Queue: 3 jobs
Job 1
Amino acid sequence: MKILALGALWVPYIRDNWFDAIRHVLGDDAVCINAGPLLAGKEKHAGQPEGYHCAYIYDLLRREKFDYLFFYHDWIFGDFPDVFFEKVRLAGIRTVAFHPDDEPEHWYTRNAGYDHHFDVVASHSTAGVARRQQSGWGNRAMYLPWGYNHRSCYAIPDSRKRYDVVFIGKHKVNDALGKVHVEDGAQREQVLVRLAEACASRGWTFRVFGFGWDQHPQLKHYAGGVPSQEEMVRIYNETRVVFNPAWSSDGNPLAVQTKLRHFEVPGCGAFQITNENPELARLFVSDEEIVFYSTDDDLLKKVEQYVSDDTRREQIAAAGYARALREHTLDHRVQSLFRHVDSVYPAQAPVPSQHIRVKTLELKDKAALAELRRQLDRDESPLDNADWVHIVAGSFLQATTDYSVLEPFFRNTPNEILAVGTYIDFAGLASNPLQPKLIESGSCVLAGDINVLDFNFPLLEEQGGCFTGFRREEFARLLVNYLAPRRRVHDLLDTFSTGTLEAIHQLNAVPTGRIVTEILLQVPKGNPHRIGMRNAEYVRRLQVLLPRFAAQHWRVVIYGISGMGEVALELAENTPGLELQAIVDRSLKVSSFNGTPVVTAAQLTELHPDVVILTAGASGASIYSSIAHLEASTCILPLYDLNHPVWSVVYG
């Protein structure tokens, strides 16, 4: 079978868990695609539901035979329209989803609105699976519990216990709203506060790790920061009792949820205690591999018991570890999922694929490039036994490559240099690094002739930037954006030594349209945030128009708060004298956001705003139609359509 796997791989828990397992289990039978680069510039195609992100996937499907599209639903469930999945199915490709949060009512209700996109839905919730089967899904709905990545979660023998009781998880309060989300934040905080008090009274070492705890009025005294993956593993190994509760989003203490961390804790060989959970009790044996509690008093009693009883605690931890490693890794889940999918919709007979060897050479600058050229004149040992060579040239925090998307080009154009794209992201911009929003990163794709005037920081090393390449007038070419077959590596190196556009054109590089390199950069000085987004055309226009609106004392409403709306809101808030009258967004269940009133679309008639900035992308046209009757009294600026006639009138 051949699988195209698509997900929000800029989110660490998605990339490092499910997709790491897919790569290890399926190997060359899977092509994994990060939706981040495909969505980073979506404002360029706003108003077109099938934007660049869809076109990119269509081209992959045209050039390579796939049996299944695996769609990791979380974070991107609303970004791909109905017509995308219709076209994929018309191509004979079955669509498969995994829902990592699916409990009725909140999460299930959200997911059910997208289930028609998929031929098979795997859910970690037995209740979610039962609902689908009752509605006629049959074996197309599959129960698939969470698991853990045993390559990144592991036991560390002979670890010294530094903590008595630990909790790891984010503080589920939105600072901007000052209110608890509709998740399990409130009840979790209550029990953590009580547990902290109990530990303090007994002289135990108690810590809470995760994003936001340093802001909690009581628990900030126990906050240990946001651990990396490696630090989390060490903390679990150094803890006597890991407190690990989980409820679903409804605020109902009986509405429990099974999560990734329920498997990571035993996967690290640690002892965990969690709230009673019938699903989890079918996966781990109660009081032998895991411990459950029923009430807060029961929790405190059992924590005291197991902090003190080293022998029994270690027996349970060891048994939980053995069970997790034997039955509950994500490798097991990937195998189970595609074995089931193949039984429902059999894959075609496998087509033998040619194994292509690609050598990635990481060089810091042009001096290293010149040294490589001299060495290749003597011998080709730096190339090993590679068929193709990719020179990742520049000074970066991190660079990763994935050449699986190039298989058709390796096969069909074996003697041609290939032109590819590079996705750049910036470190340290996300408010929560474990769950970063794409809009926060300032990320973008660099390919072909890159207009350096689009960036307010230098790209090339000779101007103080990170990339090795050359510039002619306002355009730059980057060496990282080319792959050469072994016999043509000298041609590629000589071209970039020459540094002329004529030499580039003489390479006759085949444009692949593929993004193969993801690079993490340090934020340039003087550019604190949103580096890429500030270069978008809609941003340029707002930077011109918002001060004009302020000077004219116009009242402004922003319609939509995600995506382009976040940037528009930030620009509006930082425009002196601008009257930001209100925000319209159905997802905001509050009366104000950052001090700005939140209203419904129906209230626009009462507010009489001078300008409505419409930020929605795929749904922008339908929203515009619903408020178009206001145009004689209100200027409606659709950010999704910069060719709309209103821009010619207002922007010029």
Job 2
Amino acid sequence: MFRTAAARLAPLAVAVLVAATALPASAEVADPAPIGPHQYFYGFVNGQTGHTIIKMACYGPVFPGQTGHPFPGQTVEVRPVAISSSSASIGYTGSGGGPIAVDMGDPSTVARALVLRYYGVKAEIPATATLPCYGSGKVTFTPVADSWTARQATVLVDYVGQP
């Protein structure tokens, strides 16, 4: 009788275990949604909204003012915020809504700026961008549509050259 009860409960235990481990992973996934008007948003650099690192392909000792290129595989994205906040890192699309331009602070990439059109879709930081080999900076996420109510989001970054 014990074997029969255990045999009946085993599939249930496996199903509960699978559901419990899959739930946290699915909670992190955001469906791509178009960026529209009157929406608050966060900017993300390498998955972080706060102070983060951009790894630079600068080797050996660096000197003041030295620039280089970021390693491939680093990303930026925007995600919606459910409620408004006075935090400086939260942006607002304003009445114009629509795409959000990402400014890495590299004047050579102005013509080919990153433009994000959907929430939850990562864009790779161009490995051709010219950025400082070390030091601090900021990445700004600015609504493209011209609206006096729009507000940019900012993420502080540290540029770190590799030894």
Job 3
Amino acid sequence: MFCLLLGLTLLFFASAIELNGCNSFKSCEECANSSNWLGLKCEWCASDNSCVPFFFNSCPLTSQIEHAYNCPCEMPKDIVYDEEFVKEKILPLIAGANEDDPTRLQKLLNCPFENVTVGNVFEVPCDLLNTTKCHAYTAVVHSEKAIVISFRGTQGIPQLLLQGIDFFVTKATTPFAPTGGRVFNYYYQAFHRLWDSKIAKDLVNYTKLFPDYEVWSVGHSLGGGLASLGAAAVVGNGFRSSDKVKMINFGQPRIGDRYFAEGHDRLVPFSFRIINIHDPVPAIPSVEPIGSPVDGPFHHRHEVWYPKGMEPGAEFTVSLMAEDRSGFDAIQQFNVEDHLFYFGKDLPNWPKTAPTC
């Protein structure tokens, strides 16, 4: 008798969940923002377009969507990933941040651009102890009608260690006003030391001199994260409207939480995080497990992943989600070389090997 009553009770609750629970929600956004009548959080299953309670979720891990922000979202029709534009225009601008000498940088950029003027090259201490340096430059590409901010990537073991301490030990974050949400302290400090004392002054001048020019914020690795902050700050501080700002980076780590990511998407819809096959840096720090009560690191859109490398003609995928467990997030093995080489170019050493004009 006891077993019969227990079975009937379980059947009742299962039926109640089915009839009055998460399955009543028919869209990802509605589902992932909701709970059923028992208070169980709902999750969307992308593989069969169903809404289920978290604790009753048999959906494959690669298809589970916990947050409405991460629901698949089509890009606006006027925002398109253009590989040739990235290889021919953006790559030299990103790699050029590894050149210290503004005169040589000018000669390097004269080759891919018909009319470009290097503005200023900046280097500042980027941590509280002044033990590491952060580097960026500004330029105006008249032939493209673009004002450029380019940020250098991680240089040396000390800088790598300080970022690692932020990511994995202290996990300290700071609110980032333009987007809302929080970003890791090292990135916040590095960005503001460059922005407050250097970059913002150039933007004031350039945006007044060239009111119809776009602003491009670009970078690699550490510089990719700073480029994301830079693009959001350009819009958030009123230098340009969202439709006049482009952000493209290579190998960016997760630099802030989900609220930062959502704010970034709102301010900078033209935003592409490009990832080479097994680059380890975009995988760190790791996203929190599904069901975690902590709002941890989260990527912003749009991920462009080259799953078989970057040889000419290589396939790529543009994810409709910020964190795509069926895309790059599914990678388990990594290769540091894939972080240093993008589209066949050794980014840190590009200034030494690229032609000058």
